[in-house]
């Protein structure tokens, strides 16, 4: 009897090890794919570019007054969209490993939770938004999602902002599109309930949006980092970067930035 159980246990163990091995291999291949993609379609910032000619006079004045120079990235959106037509932006977050294309599936909001940019199913997935958000970042709150991967890829390194020094030294993130580069000032990084932010808060209502923002600035959690000197109100547009919290399935880690160059 014990021999039979031992054989069964051994078979199950071998199967589990094979599955784990396959998953690790797939994740490694996807990481290599993203590294190649980064090399071919976008590059790590090596220099800075002058603030582009403004769409309005106010926007560049804000960037210049803050001494912000947009990190230069030569992103070939045509090449990216040839790989996958759902690509519509690129996000770069200094102080983290986040340097990825942003996608949105036209029909299935959770598609890129389980699918990679090349269409293969599995992890690490992609950085993506849902169809409830437009692709031009004009919504009151645009939410981007990414997995908290153990190897540090996708949105895992957003957790770097739990370190106050990292938070203080890296106040901005950048979203590149074919037409414009959006500059966001990070005003909050904290753990929050795993609720759907767009469906639970009607942020198109200015009063609700303002109350929502006020609640963020009132957070007193010791693990949260909040920039109390940053002004954010219902007239602004924000982007929320959302990822999981290890060991806390009902929580999400959020990094939020307010658009500076509207």
From TrEMBL:
CDD domains: Sortase_B (cd05826)
Pfam families for this protein: Sortase
InterPro entries in UniProt: Sortase, Sortase_dom-sf, SrtB
Signal peptide span: none
Residues passing through the membrane, by range: 6-22
Keywords on record: Hydrolase, Membrane, Transmembrane, Transmembrane helix
Keyword DNA repair tagged: no
Class of enzymatic activity (EC top level): hydrolase
The enzyme's E.C. designation: 3.4.22.71
GO molecular function, one term: hydrolase activity
SUPFAM superfamilies, per database record: Sortase
Active site: 147, 244
Protein name: SrtB family sortase
Provenance organism: Roseburia inulinivorans
Encoding gene, per UniProt annotation: srtB
């Amino acid at each position: 009897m014990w021999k039979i159980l031992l054989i069964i246990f051994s078979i199950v163990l071998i199967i589990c090890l094979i599955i784990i091995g396959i998953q690790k291999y797939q994740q490694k291949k996807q990481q290599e794919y993203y590294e190649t993609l980064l090399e071919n379609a976008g590059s790590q910032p090596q220099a800075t570019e002058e603030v582009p000619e403004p769409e309005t006079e106010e926007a560049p004045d804000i960037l210049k007054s803050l001494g912000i120079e947009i990190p230069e990235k030569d992103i070939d959106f045509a090449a990216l969209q040839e790989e996958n037509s759902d690509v519509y932006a690129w996000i770069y977050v200094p102080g983290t490993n986040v340097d990825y294309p942003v996608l949105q599936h036209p029909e299935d909001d959770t598609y890129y939770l389980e699918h990679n940019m090349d269409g293969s199913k599995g992890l690490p997935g992609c950085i993506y938004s849902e169809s409830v958000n437009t692709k031009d970042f004009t919504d009151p709150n645009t939410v981007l999602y990414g997995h908290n991967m153990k190897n540090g890829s996708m949105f895992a390194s957003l957790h770097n902002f739990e370190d106050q020094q990292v938070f203080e030294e890296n106040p901005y993130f950048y979203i590149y599109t074919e037409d414009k580069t959006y500059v966001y000032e990070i005003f909050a990084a904290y753990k929050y309930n795993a609720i759907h932010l767009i469906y639970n808060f009607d942020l198109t209502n200015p009063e609700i949006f303002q109350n929502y923002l006020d609640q963020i600035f009132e957070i007193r959690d010791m693990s949260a980092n909040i920039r109390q000197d940053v002004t954010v109100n219902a007239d602004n547009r924000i982007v929320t970067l959302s990822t999981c919290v290890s060991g806390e399935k009902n929580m999400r880690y959020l990094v939020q930035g307010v658009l500076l160059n509207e």
